[in-house]
Design goal:
3 domains; 12 helices; alpha+beta
Length: 420
């Protein structure tokens, strides 16, 4: 490769090495704060310049020169925070300085007055809508012109040139400031639109992923659940030797699998559409916990059930009742999986404005083989806590003193939140 071909790449590297740190520094600058600092520094500098020039070069009394210069230059940092106050204040200070120096050679606009007032108008134009900025520019340009015409009816060419010079310089500066402000506003809108577009794109990605998960769940689980339902429902015809008890248990398995399949289809609808479009059915409540206990007993569990009194159950709201039902359902499922043959206590009682639920199982009679997916805290306990939190309640879970496991939930009796 020749030296001439490598030269452009070397130049690009050097330019990049210089530009990158500068761009990184510029990205960290807070421009509002930088504008305040610059305005304060410029105002202090201009006070120190205007005061001696007004006193020495334009025969303004020193104290009056200092006060008017302080008001004029002080309008510059004031314009950053109070532009509608700074603009007329600066014009009033300019008129005072000009009225006190009518005998000067360069009148009504001295160079330092042009610089200060132009800077004030620029900052005002960056902060206010363009009609107000143009109005303040007309005020700053017209008021001194009217003062000059009133004090010196036969103005010299130098006076007219001074007025025109200020009008041209300040007008061009205000236009540049207005364009800059409008560009900044458009840029901010573009950034907002890009952020909204990115959010919408992220949501679309999430919805597409949810739809993909729904399809995977349907393909993997729905097929197996359907086979279980069909096999349990037709077992009595395929195996005439089964007794009434076995047939009843198989039919119950079929009913439960059909119910699970319906609930899974509702979940798939939620994943696909982002909202529950499944047919509405009565939701279980705290009174249906007795049915869960009965099902667990039919499955071979030894359950001691201490239900709510009828008056206490009537005080439990629908949402809280649904959460309580799901917590007991998950706790019994955990006991069946992790402590088969253990005795289980399911107790519920009212404690003031709280519904307290306790599910505790003893240690399993025989060691349980823990699968790879059963180590640690599973999704069941996380789901319990999420449901309880959704209604303002809490769930505590952990080992009991006798080697078993205990779950305690405290739920408000009534809550208006909607729980899935």
């Amino acid at each position: 490769m020749s030296a001439s071909s490598t030269a452009p790449s070397g130049v690009r590297r050097r330019v990049t090495a210089v530009v990158t740190p500068v761009a990184a520094f510029a990205a960290r600058i807070r421009y509002d704060r930088a504008l305040v600092v610059a305005a304060v520094a410029a105002g202090m500098t201009l006070v120190l310049i205007e005061t001696p020039l007004a006193a020495v070069g334009h025969d303004v009394p020193l104290l009056l020169a200092f006060v008017l210069a302080l008001l004029h230059a002080g309008s510059l940092p004031l314009a950053v925070v109070r532009p509608h106050l700074a603009a007329p204040l600066s014009v009033a200070a300019v008129l005072g300085l000009q009225a006190a120096s009518t005998g000067s050679a360069v009148w009504p606009w001295w160079p330092v007055l042009i610089v200060t007032e132009t800077l004030v108008l620029v900052v005002v134009a960056l902060k206010v809508p363009w009609p107000a900025a143009l109005l303040y520019w007309l005020l700053a340009t017209g008021a001194p012109a009217i003062l000059a015409a009133a004090l010196l009816p036969h103005a010299s060419d130098a006076t007219s040139a001074s007025v025109v010079t200020f009008g041209g310089i300040s007008g061009a500066s205000v236009i540049v400031a207005l364009v800059t402000a409008e560009w900044g506003s458009i840029r901010a809108q573009l950034i907002t639109e890009r952020r909204i577009s990115a959010t919408e794109a992220s949501r679309r990605v999430v919805m597409e992923e949810r739809a993909r998960i729904a399809r995977e769940l349907h393909d993997v689980i729905a097929h197996s659940m359907s086979i279980i339902t069909v096999q349990s429902s037709t077992a009595r015809f395929r195996h005439p030797e089964f007794g009434p008890a076995a047939i009843a248990e198989l039919e119950e398995i079929g009913d439960k699998s059909r119910q699970a399949l319906d609930e899974m289809r509702g979940l798939l609808a939620v994943l696909r559409a982002g909202e529950d479009t499944s047919p509405r059915a009565p939701q279980p409540d705290v009174a249906d916990v007795a049915g869960l206990v009965a099902e667990a007993e039919r499955a071979g569990m030894r359950v001691r059930f201490e239900p709510l009194q009828p008056a206490e159950a009537a005080a439990v709201g629908d949402v809280t009742g649904l959460v309580a039902y799901r917590i007991v359902q998950e706790a019994l499922s955990n006991a069946i999986r992790h402590a088969p043959g253990a005795a289980v206590l399911v107790a519920a009682h009212r404690d003031g404005d709280l519904l307290r639920i306790e599910i505790e199982n003893t240690a399993a009679p025989s060691p349980v083989v823990v699968g790879a997916g059963d180590r640690g805290e599973g999704h069941g306990l996380v789901g319990m806590r999420e449901r309880a939190t959704s209604v303002g309640g809490t769930v505590e879970a952990g080992p009991s003193d006798d080697g078993g496991f205990r779950i305690r939930a405290a739920l408000p009796l009534r809550h208006t939140a909607v729980t899935a």
